[in-house]
Amino acid sequence: MAQDEILRCHELRKAFGDLVAVADVGFAIAAGETYGLLGPNGAGKTTTISMIAGILDRDGGEVLVCGRPHGPSSTWGKRRIGYVPQELALYPDLTARENLRFFARLHGLGRAEARRRIDEVLAVVGLTGRAEDAVKEFSGGMKRRLNLGVGLLHRPPLLILDEPTAGVDPQSRNAILESVAALAGEGTAILYTTHYMEEAERLCDRIGILDLGRIRAEGTRRELVALVGELDRITLTVEGPRVVPSLQALPEVRAATGHEGRVEVMVEDAGRALPRVLGAATDAGVTVRAVEVHEPNLESVFLHLTGKALRD
Amino acid sequence: MRATLLVMAKDLRQRVRDRSLFLLALVVPFGLAAVFSLVFRGIDAQAAPTIALADRDGGPVVTAFAEQALRPLERGGVIRLRPVAEEREAREAVERGEADAAYVVPPGFSDAVTEGRPATLQIIGDSGQGAYIARAVAESFAAEVRYVQVTLAVVDGGTFEGATLVPRPVAVEELGAERRQLSLAEGFAAGMAVFFLFFTVQFGFSSVLDERRDGTLARLLAAPVPRTAIALAKLLTGVVAGVAATAVLMSASALLLGARWGHPLGVGLLVVAGVLAASGVMALVATVARTAEQAGNLQSVVAVLCGVLGGVFVPVQQLGGAFAALSLLTPHRWFLQGLADLHGEHAPAVAPGPTLALLAFAAVTTGVALLRVGRMLRP
Ligand SMILES: Nc1ncnc2c1ncn2[C@@H]1O[C@H](COP(=O)(O)OP(=O)(O)O)[C@@H](O)[C@H]1O
Ligand SMILES: [Mg+2]
User: Fold this and answer.
1) Can you spell out the DSSP letters for A243-265?
2) How far apart are CA B323 and CA B307, in angstroms?
3) What pLDDT was estimated at residue A103?
4) Over the stretch B338-347, which tens digit does the pLDDT of each residue have?
5) The ABC transporter domain covers which part of the protein (chain A) (predicted)?
6) pTM exceeds 0.80, yes or no
7) Ligand 1 pocket mutation, candidates A47, A162, A212, criterion most atoms within 8 A of CB
8) Which parts of chain A are beta strand (E)?
9) A157 and A266: one domain?
10) How many other CB atoms are there within 10 angstroms of residue A226's CB atom?
11) What is the mean pLDDT of residues A211-230?
């Protein structure tokens, strides 16, 4: 086990009657790393993380939290996990502070420590001014933010987020994504499920593509894209002599085509190839008016792997 | 234990916020007590119960009883007196419902009383209001007769100590009725108390299902606390609410209706045992359900069924033998039995039989419920 490995699970399995919701899932997350489980509705994301959080009995497989075996009766592991369920899990008749206090105390925080952490968490999720209001008076986005805040109270080294932005207004969504990125920056290991490809791309260091209860591929966005053989596309708007042959001569360039001042260049990694491409164009004496970079997204990876779209 | 208390405190706070605790523990019991008092005032205003008198003695004591005790009551509209010739006639009148109760005075009654020998005055009746009044009247008459006897003994040259040793000359004997009884109002109030208790405790354990529906159960399960602590908290919340509601209802009926419930110790133990039994039964029913709604429906059916069987609406004595036997399978029956046992001047301080029966109910049902609770404690 790596020194900073916070979560490792393998061969997780869960069936509901005849329906195998999770067939074989395994991955590991290090401190400070954000791991995304990307898959459509019904892929088995919630079932997987419910088993990891120890709220659902698993049919098979193993979970290690900070190197120790973890399961439904392991309070040691549960102290190290912050779990944010997909559905809002708050008591609407209680105030934000009362909700936070209850869960803080349930996680073993003393009175004084709870009070301090509650204030900190309220600030993180931007609800300091609404602490004494009943949750039922909150907007959807505010409830989502509080829902996230509850999972942060006990400073868990592992934070499990189940589609935390589902059905949230853009402003709250941004706030949530920023909080998550900040937590990862502080060293929290994050397990993040989503069916939004953009979120997975923006937030996650590594992504597991989940379909029908199995991880079909895993890696960084770039690795996944490379896996299916998709290339980045650089589009140049140029003025001047023909530049295509000199671009085709570059080792980074797989293909280049030109048409009426627009040049399309296919490369494996646009970020690394771009300076060479621009350099070659300048050397050839053309003026580059505009540059557009198009990187293939996980949508196409998912389509390639499963034969279906991520969202229907 | 800490987690259990935390969850209980949270649950109670929730119930205070959504006002359901207030409703269950205060409004419903007080409302019921108020309804009772109206109902019983209504009954009082209705036709007074008819009491038959079969005087097979014909002596002066019986005449005095009739003229000085019963006639004034009749004039006051409390009873209607119906003289009959035979014990058989009296019994038939009661059985046909033409009389609510009957006195049977055996031959030689007056002689026995005047000679200071024990004498028996029989009352025929059931658990209704008529029999209650008949007994109360006979008892106060018996006390009066004794006073007269005591005075005579002292005048005849006996000592005061000797006078107190004179046997109580008139023993009131009731036929076909229980030894100790609650009044109609008390019986009804007690019946409603135990009936509604089953609905009050319901919100304790079943809130596991509410939390599952609302998603918060997942959070409780993810917290570093044993699952049994959560189940226990839910059970105990129901117990607290049940004890509070029953205490309020019984105090209210004592204040508003003048109900007398017996020794506080025995009543307290009985109430706690009854609440535990009710919680256990309702918890067990909840473990059979899939959703909060289903649990609520099932629990209502069971609560009403047990209530009817247990004699909440119609006294068990008026149901047949088979029903009376079946009623022993309901906590309601034992609770009412316990209150009856604790009732009256010379009642014991505790009612061990019914209290233990209720505790047995509680132990068995709670035990099975806890064994089955695993299937409820999932997200
Ligand atoms: N408690 C359950 N009982 C029966 N089937 C379930 C249950 N929970 C999930 N499933 C099924 O398991 C599959 C995976 O569900 P889930 O893990 O919730 O997927 P996701 O979170 O990726 O949308 C789905 O087909 C779902 O219908
Ligand atoms: Mg899900």
Assistant:
1) -HHHHHTSTTEEEEEEETTEEEE
2) 12
3) 97
4) 988 888 767 7
5) 7-237
6) no
7) A47
8) 5-16, 19-30, 34-38, 60-65, 68-69, 81-84, 158-162, 189-194, 206-211, 214-219, 232-239, 253-259, 262-267, 287-294
9) no
10) 16
11) 87
Domain ranges of chain B: 2-43+183-375, 48-165
For B325-366, the pLDDT digits (tens) are: 888 889 999 999 898 888 876 778 888 999 999 999 999 999
- Whether A42 is covered by a domain: the verdict is yes
Give pLDDT, residue A240: 82
Residue with tokens 């014991």: B348
**pLDDT reading at A180 higher than 60:** yes
**Higher-pLDDT residue of A260, B89:** B89
Q: List, in sequence order, every residue forming a beta bridge with A239; answer none if it has no partner.
A: A287
Q: Given an 8 Å threshold on Cβ–Cβ distance, is A55 in contact with B214? A: no
| C-alpha–C-alpha distance, residues B154 and B16, integer Å | 65
For residues A188 and B100, the model is more confident at: A188
Question: Are both A182 and A55 inside the same structural domain?
Answer: yes
What is residue A218's predicted lDDT score, i.e. its pLDDT? 93
A258 lines ligand 1 (CB under 6 A): no
Residue A82: CB within 6 Å of ligand 1? no
Evaluate: CB of A1 within 6 angstroms of ligand 1: no
Length of chain A: 312
Residues A108 and A206 in one domain: yes
- Distant-in-sequence contacts of B210-217, Cβ < 8 A, 24+ apart: B210/B292, B212/B292, B212/B376, B212/B378, B212/B379, B213/B291, B213/B292, B214/A89, B214/A91, B215/A85, B215/A87, B215/A88, B215/A89, B215/B379, B216/A89, B216/A90, B216/A91, B217/B377, B217/B378, B217/B379
From the options 3.30.310, 1.25.40, 3.40.1710, 2.60.40, give the CATH code of B48-165: 3.40.1710
> How many degrees, rounded to 5, is the angle at CA A77 between CA A76 and CA A82?
120
Contacts with B220 from chain A: Cβ below 8 Å: 106
pLDDT at residue A130 is higher than 80: yes
Residues A68, A125 within the same domain: yes
Mean pLDDT taken over chain B: 80
The answer to whether residue B160 scores a pLDDT higher than 50 is: no
User: Minimal CA–CA distance to B377: which of B203, B232, B200?
Assistant: B232
| A151 Cβ contact partners less than 8 Å away, ≥ 6 residues apart | A82, A83, A84, A159, A160, A161
Q: In this predicted model, what pLDDT tens digit does every residue of B307-326 receive, in sequence order? A: 888 888 777 666 667 777 88
> For residue A133, with 0-12 CB atoms within 10 Å meaning exposed, 13-18 middle and 19 or more buried, which class applies?
middle
Name residue B171's amino acid: A
